[in-house]
Amino acid sequence: MPWALLGALVIVGAVEVGARRLDPMDWIPYEWKGPLWYTAVREHLEFIGPAEVAFMGSSRTREAFVVPLLRKEVPKAIGRPITIVNYGAPGCNADEAEAIVRVMARQPHPPKYLFYGITPYQLADLEYDVQGVPVWSLAHWWQRLREPNPHPEVFERWPFVVRNEIEDRYRTFAYREMIPLRVWEATTKFRLPSCPLKGEYSKHQQLTPKRSLVNTPQSAQHIKRYISSRLRRGKYVMGGPQMGALRRVMERCRAAGIQLILVELPQSEALRAQLPLDTMRRFYSLVAPLASEYDVPFLRVRQFGIDFGLAEFREMSHLNLAGARRFTSIMIRDVIVPAILGTPLGQPSPAVKLKIPPPPDEKPKRKRRRPRRDRPPRESTPTAGDEPDAEAEQPTPRAAASTHHIAQPRMDYLRCATTIRSALFSRTKGEHW
Question: How large a percentage of the chain has pLDDT more than 90?
Answer without folding.
Answer: 39
